[in-house]
Amino acid sequence: MIDRQIPLTNSLCESCNSMREVVSAKGSRFLLCQLSTVDSAFAKYPPQPIVRCRGYQAITEDKSESSQ
């Protein structure tokens, strides 16, 4: 898994437990909403910035420590 970079947007996605950062071979960065796999109401790659989201959950301490 790729470590999260310095936030590029002021978006809830940057600090959401359901977000996975995807970086293409050319270096483009995308924010994948993993909620989209279980609920079609969530966009797979939501347009940024997201300022309100009913599925938002702050990153837990456990997840942030395991990605280091």
Description:
- The chain is 9% helix and 15% strand.
- With 68 residues, the chain is mainly beta.
- It has one domain.
- The longest helix is centred in the last third of the chain and has 6 residues.
- The chain is globular and about 30 Å long.
Write the layout of secondary structure elements.
Blueprint: E1 19-23, E2 29-33, H1 61-66
Antiparallel strand pairs: 1-2
Quick structural gist:
The chain is mainly beta and 68 residues long.
Number of domains: 1
Low-confidence stretches: none
Beta strand count: 2
Secondary-structure class: mainly beta
What is the overall silhouette? globular
Side-by-side strand order of the widest sheet: 1-2
Q: Distance between the terminal alpha carbons, to the nearest Å?
A: 10 Å
- What does the average pLDDT come to? 85
Helix content: under 10%
Radius of gyration: 12 Å
Q: What is the count of DSSP helices, taking H or I runs of 4+ residues?
A: 1
What fraction strand? 5-15%
Largest sheet: 2 strands, antiparallel
Order of helices and strands: EEH
Summary keywords:
1 helix; mainly beta; 68 residues; globular; two-stranded antiparallel sheet; 2 strands
